[in-house]
Amino acid sequence: xxxxxxxxxxxxxxxxxxxxxxxxxxxxxxxxxxxxxxxxxxxxxxxxxxxxxxxxxxxxxxxxxxxxxxxxxxxxxxxxxxxxxxxxxxxxxxxxxxxxxxxxxxxxxxxxxxxxxxxxxxxxxxxxxxxxxxxxxxxxxxxxxxxxxxxxxxxxxxxxxxxxxxxxxxxxxxxxxxxxxxxxxxxxxxxxxxxxxxxxxxxxxxxxxxxxxxxxxxxxxxxxxxxxxxxxxxxxxxxxxxxxxxxxxxxxxxxxxxxxxxxxxxxxxxxxxxxxxxxxxxxxxxxxxxxxxxxxxxxxxxxxxxxxxxxxxxxxxxxxxxxxxxxxxxxxx
Length: 333
What we know:
- The chain is built from 15 helices and five strands.
- By secondary structure, it is an alpha/beta fold.
- It has three domains: 4-164, Rossmann fold, CATH 3.40.50.300; 169-207; 208-332, Zinc Finger, Delta Prime, domain 3, CATH 1.20.272.
- It has a five-stranded parallel β-sheet with strand order 2-3-4-1-5, with helices on both faces.
């Protein structure tokens, strides 16, 4: 099973949790706050397993009955609060947490409740949870996982230990991917850069054939942009608008490409590139684009992302983006 030693990043958070176990100062409520995919669920699961492990250490042993139950998802003293809709209702909080928290643990010293996506609790659900947090049983441990701690009531935050889950350092993430997935350096670096410090997203990218296809498509597009014909540009814009599920991935890859271009322009051939296999094309873009061009093109990707949420015509927006990039090359001559 997974242990704290296998987690990438979060050393401060892990150290705090292990010290609370070692010193016998386990809190009744913890608030794990961080971006989606950063590792909140994994850390919560390992912490819960550690608290219930019969070996009594600061890591789950992986061998005792409790650890085996955690690994199989059948530990009776751990409840993952689930919800069916886009919000977590008061009924779901009461049924799965508030109404059963008074039932003592079946075997271990703690009864643990994990509320994932806690930011989805509506006001009634939060108020119901607050009543439990005000007078929790001695054996209760509640782990709230959220990507927006500010969305929770101040009174819930004040009764919880806030643990900030920051994105993993890129170098650690690359090393982790290379070791776990046996990836070559350049593939691990691209997945890590695209994921922005999220181990979950980086792992998904590393394993995804579709991500690799999108990567190849992005490179092909960037190579062709300087001399691209108008009909080809129009077709690419049309394809982009029609592939809604792939838009975010492509935009993210283009942003990483521009990051490489900026690095090459500033450092030269010694720059550590995410698109290392296409260093010649990155160098060509670095020569043809000014620093101002690169920063503007990067900012324009942010604008396209924002416009997706307000139903702007994506075909026109992407066509203008490609045309703007091509004009940057023409202006540089």
